[in-house]
């Protein structure tokens, strides 16, 4: 069993930071929120009934920024959306929910940071495992490409974006530990990177 991420890092590692994270119960996003809170961060959930509603996502992120005065790290749980949309009426529903939803959330958070001239935003995209269902590999490729492209486009604004690729063996704690590391000052050295957990 993977260790509790809060035991891997020093107490208060993320003190003063605002981390926006969330996801399905028992999933990577939920574990990330718990770990970041345990390490001293203020965590917020990106609440929107429809993750593809650009205006609703923009409004939710603007509200967090207004209340907290900043967003340091956005963790987009595309894996949870991919799994949640599986078996929908449309063949590509899960791919669209994960990939388009990731772009909408990233664009919204990036726009807030760029408009406020607040460099240092980090965005972490959580991808589904390759065995996650039809089009899982396409989803992983889309998220990796999004991370690599935005890391170049937004480099001048000090916005860093990475993609985390889970495998069948990856636990929520594995994901949470890596995201906590990326949210910490050590994560400043990474952008446009793909992190494979347990192989691809």
Identify the overall geometry. globular
Count helical runs: 6
What value does the average pLDDT take?
A: 90
End-to-end Cα distance: 20 Å
Tell me the strand percentage band.
Answer: 5-15%
Give the topology, please.
Blueprint: E1 18-20, H1 28-38, E2 42-44, H2 54-68, E3 73-76, H3 78-85, H4 93-115, E4 122-127, H5 136-153, E5 160-165, H6 172-183, E6 194-196
Parallel strand pairs: 1-2, 1-3, 3-4, 4-5, 5-6
Helix pairs in contact: 1-6, 2-4, 3-4, 4-5
Overview of the structural elements:
By secondary structure, this protein is α/β, with parallel strands linked by helices. It contains six helices and six strands. It has helices spanning 28-38, 54-68, 78-85, 93-115, 136-153, 172-183, and strands at residues 18-20, 42-44, 73-76, 122-127, 160-165, 194-196. It has a six-stranded parallel β-sheet, with helices on both faces. Helix 1 links the parallel strand 1 (18-20) and strand 2. The longest helix is centred in the middle third of the chain and has 23 residues, at 93-115. The model has no long low-confidence stretch (mean pLDDT 90).
